[in-house]
From TrEMBL, chain A:
Its cofactor is Ni(2+); Fe cation. This is NADH dehydrogenase. PANTHER family: FORMATE HYDROGENLYASE SUBUNIT 5-RELATED, HYDROGENASE-4 COMPONENT G. It comes from Levilinea saccharolytica. Pfam families: Complex1_49kDa (PF00346), NiFeSe_Hases (PF00374). The keyword Oxidoreductase applies. Ni(2+) binds at C70, C73, C360. Residues 125-292, 293-366 form the NADH-quinone oxidoreductase subunit D domain. Fe cation binds at C73, C363.
UniProtKB/TrEMBL annotation, chain C:
It is a multi-pass membrane protein. Keywords: Membrane, Transmembrane, Transmembrane helix. This is NADH dehydrogenase. It is found in: Membrane. It comes from Levilinea saccharolytica. The keyword Ion transport does not apply.
Amino acid sequence: MTNQSQPQKFIVPIGPQHPALKEPGHFEFGVDGEIVTSATIRLGFVHRGIEKATEDRTWVQNLYLLERICGICSNIHGTVYAIGVEKLAGVEIPPRAKYIRTIVAELERVHSHLLWLGVAAHEGGFDTLFMYSWRDRETVMDLLEGLSGNRVNYSTNLIGGVKFDINEKQADEIRRGLDFLEERTHYYMKVVTTDETFLGRTRDIGTMTREQAELLGAVGPTARASGVPRDVRSESPYLAYNEHPIQLQVHDGGDLLARFIVRLNELFDTYRLIRELLDHMPAGDLTVRVPRRIPEGEVLIRGEAPRGELVYYLKSSGSDKPDRIKVRTPSLCNWGTISHVAVGHKLADMPMLLVGIDPCFSCNDRLVTVNNTQNSQDLTWDALRRYGIEYYK
Amino acid sequence: MDTTTALETAQSLLQPWAQTVTQPEPHRSDFVVAPADLLAAVQALMDARWGYLGAITGVDLPAPAPAEGQPPAESHLAALYQFFNGAAVATLRVTVTHAQPVLPSICDIIPSATIYERELIEMFGFDIENTPVTDHLLLPDDWPQNVYPLRKSFTGFGGAESA
Amino acid sequence: MNNIFPLIALLIFPGGLFLMASGLVYEWVDRKLIARYQNRVGPRWFQPLADVVKLLAKEEIIPTGVSRGLFVALPVIGMAGALTAALYVPIAGFAPSFSFAGDLVVTLYLLSMMTLCLGLAGANTTDRFSLIGATRTLTQLFSYEAPFLLALLGPAIVAGTWNIAEINNFAGQNIWLVVTQLMGFLVALVGLLGKLEMPPFDAPEAETEIVSGALTEYSGRGLALFRLGKDVELVVGLTLVASFYLGGIANPLEFLLKTLGLLIVMAGMQSLFARLRIDQTVGLWWRIGALLALVQLLVLIVVRVLR
């Protein structure tokens, strides 16, 4: 093989632009033939400086900014932030608003898990499952659009409540949609656990023991698939999870298959939870008034995003702008597990391993970037055109 | 273990090192720890299997503008080591000066802390001793030396960003 | 006139233009079928042609560090191999243009040219994805080639000849060989999937790992030729399997029905399975594929000797 003639390591770069990655990240896998011998990760290609930017904006403006940290789990960022600000301000939102927040959070989990199922199947070269699960995901996207008017950034939250109500007609639509999705999820569960070719790509691949998961700080479904019973919704219930607890889904396998099973089981539980919430919605207002200036203080808020534990640290100095907002996204915790688990596996398993933690690059790269004006050239349109003509001559 | 007992356990574990203990929320305790005692405190929590490291948050605490005729006060950086155990949160609060922002690395005790420590180095200019990797994690490779974006003194490189 | 006939056979029918056109049509059918199986709309009928035309119009970028001659010649050689192979099989139900006693073996070698060219093309560049793709292409070649060959030998032994045209006639006059040699048929069909690097045997060009494998560095004309070559190989392979196992091909209608029927089955297999890792591919072929083909062959020989 080619690499044996070379004394130095044969490195396969994946990213920043690569068909396996839907978002930019950079991985370098040292390989010996097909076996991966080392793995390094470089992030930061989609920095937007959100943490710094929040310090320049008011508490209300930040709600919209933070919702755009992630395109897939946009809602949970807004929700956790809003809970934090409400806590700082010392207001309690009406119970109906809590229920609506919970329902949207759980619908978002449905959409995110189905999206993940498709992407993971695609990485394993199982495009039929990819197409099917994404087709069915449209159902939940439509439900969310029916509620909020948006498919992606639902913008459910206000500081002090929610923007929209769920009426009986919408509730019935959600119930119908969930019935359909539940039936489909049963089918996917069957496919994932019985299809021999697919099992060949998931069984005993990327196995992470419970000790490793705890040591490496894994969170969310990734940790739960290694037998770590860790879910903020049951550990430290917020919103309506107190009245309607979740059933924690844990699996001891630790491999990719276990991650599939945990996420699909979570879907079943989420369907049950949404139905329960819809049946027990309290009546009442949707919002309360929150002062523009938030009293001085610090809070630490945790929420369970589809990918795992999301942590917000808010520090207020008593003005209408925050002093410091720190976001700790679940993907950041799970990265560490990859470089650890990757070594010794086949190169062909890498995409599935990467996707196994359901990574979200935008979430990680939220921190800071500023145009480095010393290096960048500002070109006028004419100059750019001339440059282009010159370049291609 | 419910939240109250968890916090009480943390308090007794951290007794030797905590300078002050406050409880801003029922489920959250803050322990102010000297940089020299940080490793011992983290080790105590981990030995007792008290939760897991949730995040390390850096906070810049610039000194207020000095009053007329007074020498300027010293600016500080704080690192908050946040540990979660069920609903309970224990925060180890370590404060260092801008002039000498030196902290020990806790990666020997908690390997996954490397990502947070790299973030502290890049964003706040902490000097973390013995941390295994110091490459840029998030900032571009050509980012200028000694510019720390999350410090309050940083307001961009001028131009488009000032708006 | 004697000189013109071979030229027509080579350039227009059944080789050359006709073969390329039918290759594009079969590619479309394949893509459309998979799309429908996967609940997608799928491409329009001229999409494969449009792809090729577009590629031909594009600049061909020759990367640094490659042997330029090889880089340009390999797609042409691969294509030529596939086109030449077509001259020995009963394309569209007409008797093969050329025929001699041992043409089955020659045809199989010509069909492998394409894969060899792909492997060489990948190894020729310095790109890391190409190198791994080339390794995988050649590894896969070694795994499916022997069982595929054995599977096609079955009908040859029954017919008692190594001549494709005669096997075709024999198959047409007897009961469909798929009934008596089911194992051989399966191995041949799956072997064809492996040969064409179609899912689930597309590890050599697994886009989520190594972009597009050996062809990563190819663009423009070279890429178009490689793709056309694969389409031609698809038609030739389908014709070969259909004429051997599905009761021979005697007229254009039979050709269409039988090859398209096979394609429907193949498209189904492509959408049913997850991609196999290269080690799984090799394991599958040598543990199951080769074994099945050998057992089949043994049964045939025993039956023949007993008679």
